[in-house]
Amino acid sequence: MLKQLFLFSVFLFFGAHAYSQTVTIVNKETNERLEQVTIFDQKTKNYVTTNEKGQADISTFKNAEKLEVRFLGFKSKLKTYAEIINNKFIIQLEPSILSMDEIVISASKWKQKKSELATKVAVISKKEIQLLNPQTAADLLTVSGKVFMQKSQQGGGSPMIRGFATNRLLYTIDGVRMNNAIFRAGNIQNVISLDPFSIEKTEVVFGPGSVIYGSDAIGAVMSFKTITPKFSFDEKALISGNAFARFSSANEEKTVHADINLGFQKWAFVTSISHNDYGDLTMGSNGPEEYLRNFYVERINNQDVAITNENPKKQIPTGYTQLNLMQKVGFKSDDNWDFEYGFHFSETSSYDRYDRLIITRNGNPRDGEWKYGPQKWLMNNLEIDKNMAHSFFDNVSLRLTHQNFEESRISRGFNRNSRETRTEKVAAFSTNLDFSKVLSKRNKLFYGAEYVFNEVTSTGVNTDISTNISQKGPSRYPNATWSSLGFYVSNQTDFASKWTLQTGLRYNFYTLDAVFDTTFYPFPFTEAKIDDAAFSGSIGLVFRPEKTWLLSTNFSSAFRSPNVDDVGKVFDSEPGFVVVPNPNLKAEYAYNTDVSVAKTFGDFVKVELTGFYTLLKNAMVRRNFTLNGQSQIMYDGEMSQVQAIQNAAAANVYGFQTGIEIDLGKGFGFSTDFNYQKGEEELDNGEKDPLRHATPWFGTTRFSYSNEKFNAQFYANYSGEVAFEDMPETEIAKPFIYAIDQNGNPYSPSWFILNIKTSYKFKEKLLFSSGIENLTDLRYRPYSSGIVSPGRNFVISLKATI
């Protein structure tokens, strides 16, 4: 079949190839070919990117007078088409950590210079991912040094950004919204469904992003771009790929991965597969004794037995496995049309909710089992791009997407026979239509529309494990539908060469229909309907007084519309509390301001500083509630305080992010990132309480060295203390995950760990990587996390490239 496609492509499009010209982009210092370099025609605004061999077809730019060659970490170059011919189609780029002209796509969904944006964007490149070798997509986000990660179990990762987390942050994959109608306010782990080996680039847009992305984009937008099929520039098929294996000692990780790209002139295919096997995670030797795992539960002779843990540093049970598959097909009918279909599938084994399994009650474990069932995610995504000079657009992109999500919770009290299984499935459909138009030399317009539809199915099953007889139980959610229809417009205007003004508006309709089963809980309603709208906007200004200075400010708003999790769930948030549905919710709004400054000194130092303030109004928070006039009900065999999500509070958060990069010369470099935030929210009584997701200060400092074959990085990760008096009430209610201070109160200690990563390339085809994480074997638990982080961890991997 592939041979037939190849012959068909050659026969049909051979004539077009006769005029193609292929340029090769290389690193000036190492002569290494550079993948994903952008060649941008400043007049037509069209661009191409280089493939794995550092090559791109630039025949469409014939006679161009200004071609800009740009790549993250390298100095940009301006070339004419004639100059490229004179240089025999070879362009050398000079490394530079100081560039302010990185290309990003997440802020507007179209490629833009970072120096043109009023919003702060962090970029995590493929090169960084390769060197630091993260185990999961959650760990990948921490590579930036600007994202704090919470984990309740090994199979998880819930980012905290600028005081917000969970459903107040938005995930996108290849431009598609991943957030669905059951994204909850509690910690989530959906990010681990993504395969770090299939991710080409990650961008984090800080602050509100609702103008472009709609609901949930309050604290940040995390945009993941997966591997793109690469085409061949001549009759010869382009075949490339990677095979990878890794072992980590702290959890006996065994990971294997393979990907292969088969490219023709008009067709291209890329396939990726990864399998991960993680054992129980071992914590460090030096730290609070409260973190040790002294017992675990086993079922022996039909009885739950608390077993003494012979190795208290081993967190039992925390192991799990995961499989990721990806298949993409690209097709170019001509230079103006691009088609790409992507299939993604991810499935984990069941994995234990570790923080629940360390709770005791009356001297015994509270739970005999508490775990998440297999987490499954499937996505079909068709993207069609058209480039043409039209009255209303120069570029248009259409995305048609279908996603399926499945997750479940399985719990059973200690020495109880009733096992409760709650399963949720979401079918999500979305359509995105995005346009860009160059109105004049100094004015660009971006606009579009988005429609999202989610169907939620929730079931409950109770099983008597002594008889293995099952019967229907209460579901976590009502069966429901949620939809959103949004329209946006954004404009970028350049004043002279120093000023850029960005404005944007979005109007969004949203609906929710839920039907409640009152068989198990006597709700005073059987259905809930929400039909409302939300409005958001932004205005930003960028000032470039000279090449070495960049100043910007941005004012923006964002919203989060109530979803099925907010309106309809029933669950135990913590022992003695039960959350019940509230069908009277409205959208919450955030209002944000940013001020940023960036300065380069000579050719060797860059300093960046961003300050921000966000006000959250009409916030959806968990508060005490009544059900049929009762403030307490019996839930899971325990008298529990009734609570519900309500529009009952305001919150604010402020802080700053700063970074320094220094080129020390001869391949050596230094960089550091530091993040500080403070926040508070209203309580029932009107008093203020620390904002739960406002993390302690944290950061990363790195020393690096690189040459043609060898790369190394020695770096430190660190975080500040959260004293008892600074702890939110919701965290004080979970003393089992915290250390104990000298007064007997829970608190989160500061921590500082050292790491080293190296890689060495053999003969261009083989890359050996090794590293030691947490060199001092510190026992530490990041703020709000339910699981203790890995102790000293030895990592080795081998990557072969074809």
UniProtKB/TrEMBL annotation:
<keyword id="KW-0675">Receptor</keyword>
<dbReference type="GO" id="GO:0015344">
    <property type="term" value="F:siderophore uptake transmembrane transporter activity"/>
</dbReference>
<dbReference type="Pfam" id="PF13715">
    <property type="entry name" value="CarbopepD_reg_2"/>
</dbReference>
<feature type="domain" description="TonB-dependent receptor plug">
    <location>
        <begin position="114"/>
        <end position="221"/>
    </location>
</feature>
<dbReference type="Pfam" id="PF07715">
    <property type="entry name" value="Plug"/>
</dbReference>
<keyword id="KW-0732">Signal</keyword>
<protein>
    <submittedName>
        <fullName>TonB-dependent receptor</fullName>
    </submittedName>
</protein>
<keyword id="KW-1134">Transmembrane beta strand</keyword>
<dbReference type="InterPro" id="IPR039426">
    <property type="entry name" value="TonB-dep_rcpt-like"/>
</dbReference>
<keyword id="KW-0813">Transport</keyword>
<keyword id="KW-0472">Membrane</keyword>
<keyword id="KW-0798">TonB box</keyword>
<keyword id="KW-0998">Cell outer membrane</keyword>
<dbReference type="InterPro" id="IPR000531">
    <property type="entry name" value="Beta-barrel_TonB"/>
</dbReference>
<dbReference type="InterPro" id="IPR012910">
    <property type="entry name" value="Plug_dom"/>
</dbReference>
<keyword id="KW-0812">Transmembrane</keyword>
<dbReference type="GO" id="GO:0009279">
    <property type="term" value="C:cell outer membrane"/>
</dbReference>
<dbReference type="InterPro" id="IPR036942">
    <property type="entry name" value="Beta-barrel_TonB_sf"/>
</dbReference>
<feature type="domain" description="TonB-dependent receptor-like beta-barrel">
    <location>
        <begin position="349"/>
        <end position="775"/>
    </location>
</feature>
<dbReference type="Pfam" id="PF00593">
    <property type="entry name" value="TonB_dep_Rec_b-barrel"/>
</dbReference>
<dbReference type="InterPro" id="IPR037066">
    <property type="entry name" value="Plug_dom_sf"/>
</dbReference>
<feature type="signal peptide">
    <location>
        <begin position="1"/>
        <end position="18"/>
    </location>
</feature>
<dbReference type="GO" id="GO:0044718">
    <property type="term" value="P:siderophore transmembrane transport"/>
</dbReference>
<comment type="similarity">
    <text>Belongs to the TonB-dependent receptor family.</text>
</comment>
